């Protein structure tokens, strides 16, 4: 199976660490993306919007006629879902790690302050204790060293879906800092409308904080490989 790995905010391809190699050792293809504006801390981010990031994901999907498993970490869950919406016949499954798709018409992501064209990493105190519970000082330093601002224009863009067939694409939601039961309750309460509308949504626990690709790469890779094999 072919995996496309989309990093979350402030991160690029290198944030996936050993996950791509572990997937390759399991017999899969793996392509970790660096989205526009995330190439470096000094990269140009002016004028970038959600279509630029989605275009990069769709370009990776298009590289091979074989349907892909599109994996989105955190806010990139919305990008994975948008890829399924754009090309439902080319996405075999989406995997969302610690995130869920934004609702129709809402901004890609709210809650982080922009500084001009940039949305800088806000620092660890901005996160809940469950998010960072398995990140020691060394792991936090490693993550901060590879972080760079995300484009403000991407976060501010309202999300639009176009094809109801996106709900037929299989979904695996990996639950790190929250539990499977939490996710079920949120779907029932209407907080995750895009997932609640899905025909086949699998919920999987992983014992980690918000960045299991950093703290639990082997376990996360096994979950991804199992999802792809289904």
Strands in their spatial order, largest beta sheet: 2-1-3-4-7-8
Any idea of the CATH class?
A: Alpha Beta
Radius of gyration: 16 Å
Number of domains: 1
Percent range of helical residues: 25-40%
Unreliable spans: none
Largest beta-sheet details: 6 strands, parallel
Mean pLDDT: 97
Shape: globular
| Strand segment count | 8
Discrete helix count? 9
What tags apply to this protein structure?
230 residues, alpha/beta, Rossmann fold, six-stranded parallel sheet, globular, hydrolase
Structural notes for this entry:
This protein is an alpha/beta fold and 230 residues long. The chain has one domain (2-229): Alpha/Beta hydrolase fold, catalytic domain (Rossmann fold, 3-Layer(aba) Sandwich). It has nine helices and eight strands. The chain has helices at residues 19-25, 50-62, 76-86, 137-146, 152-156, 180-188, 193-196, 212-215, 217-229, and strands spanning 2-6, 29-32, 68-73, 91-97, 118-119, 150-151, 170-175, 201-205. The strands form two sheets. It has a six-stranded parallel sheet with strand order 2-1-3-4-7-8, with helices on both faces. α1 (19-25) crosses α9. The longest helix has 13 residues, at 50-62. It is globular. It starts with a strand and ends with a helix. The model has no long low-confidence stretch (mean pLDDT 97).
Task: Detail the topology: elements first, then pairings.
Elements: E1 2-6, H1 19-25, E2 29-32, H2 50-62, E3 68-73, H3 76-86, E4 91-97, E5 118-119, H4 137-146, E6 150-151, H5 152-156, E7 170-175, H6 180-188, H7 193-196, E8 201-205, H8 212-215, H9 217-229
Helix pairs in contact: 1-9, 2-3
């Amino acid at each position: 199976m072919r995996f496309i790995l989309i990093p979350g905010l402030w991160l690029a391809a290198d944030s996936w660490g050993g996950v791509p190699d572990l997937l390759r050792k399991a017999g899969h293809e793996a392509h970790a993306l660096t989205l526009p504006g995330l190439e470096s801390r000094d990269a140009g981010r002016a004028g970038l919007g959600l279509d630029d990031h989605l275009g990069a994901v769709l370009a990776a999907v298009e590289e091979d006629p074989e349907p892909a498993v599109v994996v989105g970490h955190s806010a990139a869950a919305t990008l994975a879902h948008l890829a399924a919406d754009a090309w439902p016949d080319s996405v075999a499954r989406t995997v969302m790690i610690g995130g869920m798709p934004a609702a129709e018409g809402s901004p890609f992501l709210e809650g982080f302050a922009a500084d001009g064209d940039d949305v800088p990493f806000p620092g660890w105190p901005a996160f809940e204790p469950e998010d960072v519970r398995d990140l020691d000082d060394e792991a936090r330093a490693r993550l901060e060293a590879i972080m760079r601002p995300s484009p403000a224009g991407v976060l501010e863009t309202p999300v639009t879906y176009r094809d109801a067939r996106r709900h037929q694409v299989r979904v695996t939601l990996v639950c790190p800092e929250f539990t499977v039961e939490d996710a079920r309750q949120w779907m029932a309460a209407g907080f995750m409308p895009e997932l609640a509308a899905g025909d086949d949504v699998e919920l999987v626990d992983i014992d980690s904080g918000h960045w299991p690709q950093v703290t639990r790469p082997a376990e996360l890779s096994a979950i991804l490989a199992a999802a792809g094999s289904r």
